[in-house]
Amino acid sequence: MTDLVMVKLGGSLITDKRGESAAREDVIERLGREIAAALPRMWEKLVVGHGSGSFGHAAAARHGIGRGPVAAGSEAGVSETAYQAARLHELVVGSLRDADLAPFSWAPSSAMIMRSGRPVKATTEPLAEALEQGLLPVTYGDVVMDREWGAAICSTEQALRTLHSRLKRRGFRVRRALWLGVTSGIYDSAGEPVPRIDRGNFSEVRRGIGAAEGTDVTGGMMLRLETVRWFQRRGVESWIVDGRVPGLLEAGLLGEDLPGTRLPPEA
Fold first, then answer.
1. Which DSSP symbol is given to 140?
2. Crossing angle of the two packed helices 156-168 and 220-233, in degrees rounded to 10
3. How large is the C-alpha radius of gyration of the chain?
4. Residue 197 — pLDDT band, cuts 50, 70, 90?
5. Domains and their CATH numbers in the chain
6. Cα gap 223→168, rounded to integer Å
7. Does residue 226 register a pLDDT over 80?
């Protein structure tokens, strides 16, 4: 098995989700430099995912995409949402290229089919080949054709879960996942970061999760918590950290302990 690290750059981190099409280009560039600094020193391969933030989420909310069957005549809305998500993706990929990396896009819109908002089919062979050839796969939250709804939103979390399962069949094993946002981890009811989450306190922590900040059609922090718990049960260590702090991404890629919330592997 070839070991992998997965990274999710949250939409709230790389954009201002209170606005529309508001990229934080300085943050995107810094994160690209941190990946470039760490990757040559990593023994694992890397897959990067990023949210759609104020690009895709704002368009999806405006057109009612991702919350059930799309309305008749919504073709323009589906197209705009896909276009806005791809615009942000181009910025992220461009920043990685500027950092002298070799990113390779894996767009869910071109590789997946969903049913009632859940992925049911995905083509991962191109991504696996890209990993084998030393490229850096990059995926993102995207619009996907849906057999029941017409179109749905595939969150970055859904894309990474799908890749975890499909790549395992191709000899890749996810060992660690880093989830970067604009909080210092998962907060408890007193507003303090929870240092560790496991089966013993997951339900209590879940009850304390608040609503997502800004426009979000996929579930915000609740979706992230449920996703990292899913990874935890499959033997993947996860860290939820504040991506605004310079150096944390680089340190996490190198396997260092981080300030934030850790979910140790269970399987």
1. E
2. 10
3. 17
4. very high
5. 2-263 (3.40.1160.10)
6. 22
7. yes
Give the SS3 label for residue 147.
coil
Nearest to 178, CA basis, from 12, 46, 86: 46
pLDDT class of 254 with cuts at 50, 70, 90: very high
CB 156 within 8 A of CB 8: yes
CB 56 within 8 A of CB 142: yes
Q: Residues 184, 239: contact at Cβ < 8 Å?
A: no
CA–CA separation, 172 and 151 (whole Å):
30
Q: Give which of 185, 199, 182, 172 is closest to 266, Cα–Cα.
A: 199
Q: What residues does 155 pair with on adjacent strands?
A: none
Q: Which residue type does 96 have?
A: L
Of 15, 53, 9, nearest to 215 (Cα)? Answer: 53
Residue with tokens 């590789």: 111
pLDDT at 215 over 60: no
Query: Cβ of 174: how many Cβ atoms within 10 Å?
Result: 24
What global pTM score does this model have? 0.90
**Please, which pLDDT band fits residue 210 given cuts at 50, 70 and 90?**
low
Q: Which residues of 16-37 are buried (b: 16+ CB within 10 A; e: fewer)?
A: bbeebeebbeebbbbbbbbbbe
Distance CA 210, CA 212 (A): 7
Q: Which residues pair with residue 6 across a beta bridge?
A: 47, 177
> Residue 152 above 80 pLDDT?
yes
Query: Tokens for 125?
Result: 């062979």
Tokens of 53: 């933030």
